[in-house]
C-alpha cells in the first residue's frame, strides 16, 4: 500500500485559515467542507485531520497524526514529546499579563500574593517561578479577560495581538511573557518513507515562503547606469539584462527581498532607472 502521512490542522479558528491556505499554495488539493473530521488529498500522499488546536500536540505525540500545525503557545503549554520542524510565520501573538487599567503597576512584584486567571498554567507557572513571584494560578478554559471584573482574579495571563480585547475589558498589558507563531511539528519516530514525504512538503513550504518574502523587479535603464543598478539588485545569481529596441537602453530583471523593497526602489530611481515594475513571486527555489 502507498505510504501516506496524516497532518493535524485546526478545524476552525485563528490558525485554520492560514494553515489550509499554506498547504493549498504548496499545490496540495483537498476537500474541507461539510464539517468532516478527516479528508484525504487528491494529489499528494497526505490525509487531513481537522481538530481543536489544544489536541494537536497530543495527537502528533501519540502518532495518530504524523505532523501538525499548531501555535507555539499550545505546543509549549501541552509539553508533549514532538519535534518542531519549521516556523510558519503566521498566527503571531504573545502571551501577556494584564491587570485592571485603574491599578498602578510598578513591576512584577505586583503579582505577589495575587490571583491570576489563565488558560496557560504551565507557561505562566514557569514564568512566575523563574521570576520568584508567588501568585495563585486559576486555570480557566476561555473568556479569561472577564475574570477580574467578576472578581475571580486580580490579573490575567492571556493571548494578545492588537490589545483591543484587553481594552474593551478595562485591562492593560503590563508584561509580555511569551511570543508565539504557528509551527509545523512532527512525531519523533517516523518511518523513512514518511520522512521522505515530509521532506517534499518542507521543500514546497520553503519555496512558498521564500517567494512571499521576495519580489520580482523589472526596469529600464540607460546603459551607462547598468553597473550601478546591477550592484543594487544582484538577484539570485545575477540580474537578466536585455537590450531595449531603443538604442542605448536596457531592461533589467531581478529579485529583491520584500523588506528592502522601498529603499532599493529609491536607490534604483536615483541611479537612473525608469518604468520600474514590481511583481509578486508565487514560488521561489534557490
Ligand atoms: P480551538 O477551538 O481549536 O481550541 P481556540 O479557541 O483555542 O480554538 P483560536 O482563538 O482559534 O483558539 O486561536 C488558535 C491559535 O491562534 C492560538 O493558540 C494562538 O496560537 C493563535 N492566536 C490566537 N489569537 C490570535 C490573534 N489575535 N492573532 C494571531 N494569532 C492568534
Ligand atoms: Mg484551543
Automatic annotation (TrEMBL):
Domain Histidine biosynthesis HisG C-terminal: 213-283
Pathway in which the depicted protein is active: Amino-acid biosynthesis; L-histidine biosynthesis; L-histidine from 5-phospho-alpha-D-ribose 1-diphosphate: step 1/9
Pfam families per UniProt: HisG, HisG_C
Activity regulation (record text): Feedback inhibited by histidine.
Gene Ontology terms: cellular component: cytoplasm
Keywords: Amino-acid biosynthesis, ATP-binding, Cytoplasm, Glycosyltransferase, Histidine biosynthesis, Magnesium, Metal-binding, Nucleotide-binding, Transferase
Reaction catalysis annotation: 1-(5-phospho-beta-D-ribosyl)-ATP + diphosphate = 5-phospho-alpha-D-ribose 1-diphosphate + ATP
Domain of life, per lineage: Bacteria
Required cofactor names: Mg(2+)
EC number, as in UniProt: 2.4.2.17
Residues of the signal peptide: none
Record flagged with keyword Transmembrane: no
Compartment(s) of residence: Cytoplasm
GO biological process, one term: L-histidine biosynthetic process
Catalytic class of the enzyme: transferase
General function of this protein: Catalyzes the condensation of ATP and 5-phosphoribose 1-diphosphate to form N'-(5'-phosphoribosyl)-ATP (PR-ATP). Has a crucial role in the pathway because the rate of histidine biosynthesis seems to be controlled primarily by regulation of HisG enzymatic activity.
Family of the protein in this entry: Belongs to the ATP phosphoribosyltransferase family. Long subfamily.
HAMAP family assigned to the protein according to its UniProt record, in alphabetical order: HisG_Long
Name of the protein in its database record: ATP phosphoribosyltransferase
